[in-house]
Amino acid sequence: MKLEFLGTRGYIDAKSRRHRRHTATMVIHEDVSLLIDCGLDWEGQLPRLAPDAIAVTHAHPDHAHGLKAGTERPVYAPEVAWRDMAEYPIDDRRVVAPRERIPIGPISLEAFPVVHSLRCPAVGYRIEAGGIAVFYVPDVVDIEQRREALAGVRLYVGDGATITRSLVRRRGDELFGHTTVRAQLGWCQETGVKRAIFTHCGGGDRHRR
């Protein structure tokens, strides 16, 4: 399995030559490519990327608005995300149910609900190919069924919005925002995940519900 981090930027203005596009990560195994997330500034770029399929974690602009112009490729997304993407000209819409293993050629995808946004509920994806498991969650406060999600995972790809300063907020009993890289490394240690990469980096001052 090969991962290509095409975009690493959260919904912030700051950018650089190597860190300038919103989130988009390509998973490639054998002759199949799966693009996970397609943020706002990828709109119009899908023909160039030419993935075989696309999966969306949630419908925030920096994860899904690159699909606003539509695509002929199959797009996998949770039902709640499809409500926010209802007007997108996408013909092949596939609903991702929690904990359902979805084969995309030699790659399998399994969605785990995560705490992140109140308005745009999100999932993280357990991705398996060639006997290797990776967990991908670019925006997260917590992972539901975390131990099951990370069991046997070789690589954790997580939320790089903040290293040590908590960006978790509360409305009533509900949490939203971003947990720290330090907390996510703690999850990895607890579950025996030995490698981690942090993407979707942000400036730490924007909190969307």
Task: Describe what you observe in this structure.
The protein is an alpha/beta fold. It is built from 5 helices and 15 strands. The protein has a single domain (2-199), classed as Ribonuclease Z/Hydroxyacylglutathione hydrolase-like (Metallo-beta-lactamase, Chain A). The strands form 3 sheets. Strands 7, 8, 9, 10, 11, 12 and 15 form a 7-stranded mixed beta sheet that branches. Helix 1 (46-49) links the parallel strand 3 (32-36) and strand 4 (53-55). The chain is globular and about 40 Å long. The mean pLDDT is 92.
Write the layout of secondary structure elements.
Elements: E1 2-7, E2 24-29, E3 32-36, H1 46-49, E4 53-55, H2 61-64, E5 75-78, H3 79-84, E6 93-96, E7 101-104, E8 107-115, E9 122-129, E10 132-136, E11 142-143, H4 146-150, E12 155-159, E13 167-171, E14 174-178, H5 181-191, E15 196-199
Parallel strand pairs: 3-4, 4-5, 5-6, 10-12, 12-15
Antiparallel strand pairs: 1-2, 2-3, 7-8, 8-9, 8-11, 9-10, 13-14
Give a quick precis of the structure:
The protein has 209 residues and is of the alpha/beta class. It has 5 helices and 15 strands. A hairpin with a 2-residue loop joins strand 7 and strand 8.
Termini, distance in Å? 34 Å
Q: How would you name the CATH homologous superfamily?
A: Ribonuclease Z/Hydroxyacylglutathione hydrolase-like
Give the name of the CATH architecture.
Answer: 4-Layer Sandwich
Domains (count): 1
Whole-number average pLDDT?
92
Strand percent estimate: 35-45%
The top-level CATH class is: Alpha Beta
How would you describe the shape?
globular
**CATH fold-level label:** Metallo-beta-lactamase, Chain A
